[in-house]
Task: inverse folding
């Protein structure tokens, strides 16, 4: 399936969860599509690319509670 990434078993140190960053962090203030963010339901296992979603032009800090309370967002660290 296009846009779906299986969650790795265990923690992957190359990923940064956006909710763990301090408010105002550079990554939290850049558009999600620009930083190649991925999203998953907090109770799910599949990560999905958000680049083609309507929210891709919004930053994490701009998302409403309906997104941030039910979903996790991550970016890959180089």
Result:
């Amino acid at each position: 399936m296009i846009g779906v990434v299986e969650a790795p078993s265990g923690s992957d140190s190359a990923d940064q969860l956006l909710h763990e960053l301090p408010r105002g962090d550079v990554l939290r203030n850049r558009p999600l599509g620009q930083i190649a963010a991925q999203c998953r339901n907090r109770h799910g296992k599949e990560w999905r690319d958000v680049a083609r979603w309507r929210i891709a032009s919004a930053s994490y800090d701009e998302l409403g509670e309906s997104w941030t309370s039910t979903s996790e967002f991550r970016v890959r660290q180089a």
